[in-house]
Write a structure and sequence with these properties.
With about 325 residues, the chain is α/β, with parallel strands linked by helices. Helix 7 links the parallel strand 12 and strand 13. The chain has ten helices and 16 strands.
Length: about 325
């Protein structure tokens, strides 16, 4: 099969495009003919070796987490899927399993989901990691009608989903982004838009029930000043601050700092699909690259400050 893979850690030069053996279906697995994949920070952090201490280092390694495509083979122990089904999901590439930047993906059936009829392959491939991460952060924050929510980095992958989901829940949303992206943030439903520099964030005067720090770079002093008592800060970073500092802030100011990690339960997918169906959430696709240009896709995702999501067309 044609695939984009790495044989070592590194930058753009670490990615190769070529042939690797087709995967064989397993007892609880599916073979998916991949249509689209998308690039997330976890993918380029694996590629660079930035998180090598917590993820396997077996090479060659096929990257790519999000996927959409068509089932071609079904393992003997699998129920609920058949050849020809349109599916999407998030391959567990973090744990060393095969990623989605390949013509054929072997993935356990628990990581795949039947695509709703009104969902395109492009939109489906953009959703799982970023949208479900944003949804989990807002869920942890108890986002609901009338809450005040700050989304830092509101036009990136996680951020643009977080902004739209918070609005769908009835929150008043302040978005931070570059000046060039201010109109885009408003088109996603932002009630207020601010820049994201230290000075601009410091100038924010409101108190927030929830901060979704999609950019992951807010300072503790900013967080504690901007959160209401009882407020919650969530970041996609695995451990945004030390356990001691988090405990100290919780005890003395009743403000909670937590991780907005991916949660991909069936009920999470169902809630997301309803938001898509009701047109309350719409993925924003910045650019689509061919699999032969996957190295450029990674470069742009990591350094180009993309708006929304980056897709890779596989077939």
């Amino acid at each position: 099969m044609k695939t984009s893979y790495i044989t070592c850690y590194g930058g753009k030069e670490a990615l190769s495009y070529g042939e690797l053996p087709d995967p064989e279906v397993t007892e609880n697995g599916l073979i998916v003919a991949v249509r689209f994949a998308s690039i997330n920070p976890v993918d380029y952090k694996i590629k660079s070796g930035a998180i090598r201490l917590v993820t396997p280092s077996k090479f060659p390694r096929i990257l790519g987490t999000d996927f959409s495509g068509i089932v071609t083979k079904v393992g003997a122990g699998v129920t609920g899927f058949k050849p020809g089904d349109r599916v999407y999901g998030a391959a567990p590439v973090f744990s060393g399993k095969q990623g989605s930047l390949a013509e054929l993906l072997l993935v356990e059936s628990k990581y795949a989901r039947i695509m709703p009829a009104d969902l395109s392959f492009e939109d489906a491939a953009s959703l799982p990691v970023a949208a479900l991460t944003a949804m989990n952060g807002l869920r942890k924050g108890g986002t609901s009608q009338g809450k005040r929510v700050l989304v830092n980095g509101a036009t990136g992958g996680v951020g643009h989903f977080g902004l739209q989901i918070a609005k769908a829940k009835g929150a008043f949303v302040t978005a931070t982004c570059s000046r060039a992206n201010a109109d885009l943030a408003r088109s996603f439903g932002a009630d207020e838009v601010s820049g994201y520099s230290k000075e601009q964030i410091s100038a924010l005067g409101g108190k927030y029930d929830v901060i979704l720090d999609a950019w992951g770079k807010m300072e503790v002093s900013e967080i504690t000043r901007l959160l209401k008592r009882g407020g919650i800060y969530a970041s996609p970073l695995f451990m945004p601050y030390s356990a001691f500092l988090t405990f100290f802030i919780k005890i003395f100011s009743n403000k909670k700092l937590t991780s907005s990690n991916l949660r991909a339960l069936p009920e999470d997918f169902s809630a997301l699909e309803k938001l898509i169906h009701d047109k309350k959430v719409k993925p924003h696709i910045d650019r689509t690259f061919s699999i032969t240009d996957a190295a450029e896709a990674f470069e742009y995702a990591e350094k180009g400050r993309p708006k929304g999501k980056i897709l890779v067309r596989i077939s």
